[in-house]
Amino acid sequence: PEMIGGATPRAPAWRAPALLALGGLAALGPPVMGLPLPAYVSVALLLLGGIACVPAAVALLLARLKPRSALPLLAVQRARHEQHAASVAMAGVVSSLSLAVALTVMVASFRNGVAEWLDAVLPADLYVRSGTQGQGDTAYLPPAFVREAARVEGVARAEGLRVRPLQLDPAKPAVSLVARPLRDPARDLPLLGRALPPAGELPGVYVSEAMVDLYGARPGTTLRLPLAGEQPVAVRVLGVWRDYARQFGAVALDLQTYRRLSGDDRINDLALWLAPDAALDTVQQRLRALAPEAGLLEFASPGEIRRVSLGIFDRSFAVTYYLQAVAIGIGLFGIAASFSAQVMARRREFGLLAHLGFTRRQIVGVVGGEGAAWTAAGALVGLGLGLLVSVVLVKVVNPQSFHWTMELLLPWGRLAALCAAVVLAGTLTAAFSARAAAGRDAVLAVKEDW
């Protein structure tokens, strides 16, 4: 369409909702070659639809602003007059802020899920393992030590844990078998939904979410596990549990059932529940005295494991915060470029305001008010768009990429601070861009019309 009188051509009203609707439909698509490609298309369509919503959002926000004093009224009126130019200036801010919001929600949701998962899978007071764990499936605790550890003063209960790899499919990575006492699976495992009751003669097992995606091991189906010898053992899947430690799948089986099926009575780890009056350091010293050689044992408390695990998580995702800052900085650079071009073209306007008695500070305040109105509208659109994108990342991209799910957590305090920082930075950026054009040259520029 042609430009008439310098006005910016308006996009069709249906474009924004159509893009958002297409983005929602694309998120429902299955992965392609193991990659969440439809979900990536969904994110792109949602971003385009959100950017297309900026003019309407600016108009809606400015329509609700009714300042009474002169300076805010002038800023709002000017912003209303240039609301279509705001869509160009705010496109970068909306896209960068929405991605920052989506990443913030995704990381917060994942971290919260990992923390709750650690609480569920670490119920004991102390964990013991062999100091030769780096040797794969060849490191075990001595059988004599396991028997004696349960009788150590201060130990109320001891449970063994057997972990070993199982090759279910030569074309896929090995899955992990976790054999541990399962008196009450609903309490001992972080189950998703209600498990099936044991039925028939087949032993019952519980699989991680990755097993459902990679092997179709849904509750009620049958798996064949190579536990001993050449003949696989048939087991029935009773439930699905959440496991953030093993991306390629895990199978949980009661320890006594595992020993009966496989004849393997070896132990990798030992979980200890201590007596109420027992001292952790004293119990560790007594356990070390039982070991056949110094340095054979490694000890870890649930708090220590939790702290180390979450520390690794935070370091792994620390780069996302720098990426958010860079993305928002690029968006603010677009605002600076847009306002710099505008204020250079508005020198005569600023000169006229100066002749009417406006000070340089007041003129800069007017431009800063315009920037605040634009960035506030952009922040609202970016926040809403970011929440939509975060749903796609958490509920679609993450399960299709890593084969595990998490609950959506919205850190409202952090999101509010992020939006407030964008509005403040956009306001200061606009005001700084106006400082140079609101000086003496703006007053002299009025003479060009005389």
Q: What layout of secondary structure does this protein have?
A:
Elements: H1 15-26, H2 37-52, H3 54-64, H4 70-81, H5 83-121, E1 126-130, H6 143-149, E2 155-166, E3 175-180, H7 185-188, E4 204-208, H8 209-215, E5 222-225, E6 233-241, E7 250-254, H9 255-262, E8 269-274, H10 280-290, E9 297-300, H11 302-316, H12 318-345, H13 347-355, H14 360-402, H15 412-435, H16 440-445
Parallel strand pairs: 3-7, 4-6
Antiparallel strand pairs: 1-8, 1-9, 2-3, 2-8, 4-7, 5-6
Helix pairs in contact: 1-2, 2-5, 2-14, 3-4, 3-5, 3-14, 4-14, 5-11, 5-12, 5-14, 5-15, 12-15, 14-15
Description:
The structure is a single chain. The chain has 450 residues and is α+β, with helices and mostly antiparallel strands. The protein is built from 16 helices and 9 strands. The chain has helices at 15-26, 37-52, 54-64, 70-81, 83-121, 143-149, 185-188, 209-215, 255-262, 280-290, 302-316, 318-345, 347-355, 360-402, 412-435, 440-445, and strands spanning 126-130, 155-166, 175-180, 204-208, 222-225, 233-241, 250-254, 269-274, 297-300. The chain has a 9-stranded mixed β-sheet with strand order 5-6-4-7-3-2-8-1-9. Strand 2 (155-166) and strand 3 form a beta hairpin. Helix 3 (54-64) runs antiparallel to helix 4. Mean pLDDT is 84; it is low at 1-8 and 442-446.
